[in-house]
Amino acid sequence: MNHKEGLTSGTCRLSGQPETGLYVAPTLDDAVAALAERGREAAPLAGATWIMRAPLRQERHLFYVAIGQIAALHDVSVDDRNVSIGACATHAELIRGLAAISDCRALALAAGNAANPAIRQVATIGGNLCAADFPAADLVTALLCLDAEIELQGPQGRDRISLSHFLEIRTSLAPGQLVRRIIVARAQRRSVHVRLPLRKAGDYPVAIFSLAVTLNESGGVVGASAAVGSVEPTPRRWHELEAELVGHPLDPIRAAEKARHHSAALRGRDAVEAPGWYRVSVLPSLVRKAVHALREPHER
Amino acid sequence: MPIRLRINGEDRVSNSDPLSPLVDVLRDEFFLTGAKPVCREGFCGACTVLLAGEPIASCLMPAGLVADREVRTVEGLAPEGDLSPLQRALEEHDVVQCGMCFPGLVVTLTRYFERAEHPSRTDMKAALAGNVCRCTGYERILDAALSLVRTAETP
After folding, report:
1. What is each CA distance from A219 to A241, A246, A294, in whole angstroms?
2. Which of A296, A288, A211, A217 is nearest to A251 (CA)?
């Protein structure tokens, strides 16, 4: 089967709506070609957990190019310089691939606590990145604090950009352009990912906080990357808090006070599960919890 | 274009739209009504089935992505007319109330017991994070499931 055919035709007998088309791409080049040819009416499909809820958002594409069957896009490879993660690596694959990588602990925690076990089995890191309307993206928040880069693949070749830049342009990628892999540079750092769901597990979190720090020999913070998710429509770095952490030891109480002081920099979003003011108000507690977790056991 | 599926060990063919949720294909085409479409957002777990041996939310799985992959529903966990040891334990402990969540929950716990070397209450609760039960409060479900472990350990 080639992408000019796919699985489609006619009208769905169950819904009466025009049928969608689906092409299961065997290779990345095939996927890029199929998407480029179909233009804006087509979209890539990986784990499908976000796209299958598209009717609830009144969204619809006419053609999907499935990329989840491309084995290379599931690779999680680690060397001394980088962790390279294929765009279709699922949360479950991430958990297994990152189990022994202490400097990427924030990402492992994000993958292991997001959603629920059944969703983690199929939802992909690429989908988490590309779902621009999904504000509670655990993986995106963790990747922000780890200064991840995104490698795009398109008809014109490959391009590598910062995650922050990708979040700005992800809704305007050129036809045929898709996320190929995510690269996280190795570093001497401690990182953590904390979140506040309404139940102990299984809910979209009200707020997410990821923190990565680099310490000097006496335990002082010389570098800090802090990211906030689910509070605003898009996860983002919290530079004001980062500046307050650098030059000081890991002090959970002080960090929470600084988070409270700099909460005005954030505009909490209102949604059915929680109002915006509440999302912002819980952040100091999450910051305190995160900083506490980063301290060595004997320091607590 | 037909979609070839393998469901509970049998080769089947679906003529549904490839983006049809697997739960609808299972129920409407093949009359396997154990998996239930409730939230349709992957939260509640009532639609849980096994795909290539792992629990997934069939409400969020397009049928077209399941082609040639092994699907196992609650109906396929034991020979027809029989119950698996887990199902028997849940029945003997009189655990089921409304029944809405149970097919999905049984599928999740089946996979859990296939994989867990040392089943525990805490681990089972984590495994059931995606299976919402509004009736039972879970404790009797866990008691019944853990009775399998005690039975296995009894010399």
Report:
1. 18, 11, 11
2. A288
Written as one string, the DSSP assignment of B3-69 is: EEEEETTEEEEE-S-TTSBHHHIIIIIT---SS--SSSSSSS-TTEEEETTEEEEGGGSBGGGSTTS
Of the candidates A219, A194, A179, A198, the residue with the CA atom closest to the CA atom of residue A285: A194
Count of residues in chain A: 300
- Output the tens digit of pLDDT for each of chain B's 155 residues: 899 999 999 999 999 999 999 999 999 999 999 999 999 999 999 999 999 999 999 999 999 999 989 999 999 999 988 999 999 999 999 999 999 999 999 999 999 999 999 999 999 999 999 999 999 999 999 999 999 987 666 55
Chain B nearest C-alpha distance from A83 (Å):
26
Window 23-82 of A, Cβ < 8 Å to B = 24, 45, 48-49, 52-53, 56, 64, 66, 68
Q: Residues, chain B, total? A: 155
**What residues of chain A, 178 to 197, have a C-beta less than 8 Å from chain B?**
none
Tokens read off for A131: 């779902």
B18 neighbors A8 (Cβ within 8 angstroms)? yes
| Complex ipTM value | 0.94
Q: How far apart are CA A156 and CA A154, in angstroms?
A: 5
What is the phi-psi region of residue B9: left when phi exceeds 0, alpha when psi lies from -120 to 50, beta otherwise?
A: left
Chain A CB contacts of B126 under 8 Å are 117, 201
Domains defined along chain A, listed by start: 8-66 (3.30.43.10), 71-185 (3.30.465.10), 190-299 (3.30.390.50)
Bridge partners of B151?
A: none
Characterize A256-266 residue by residue with b for buried, 16 or more Cβ atoms within 10 angstroms of its Cβ, and e for exposed.
Answer: bebbbebbeeb
DSSP lists the bridge partners of residue B105 as none
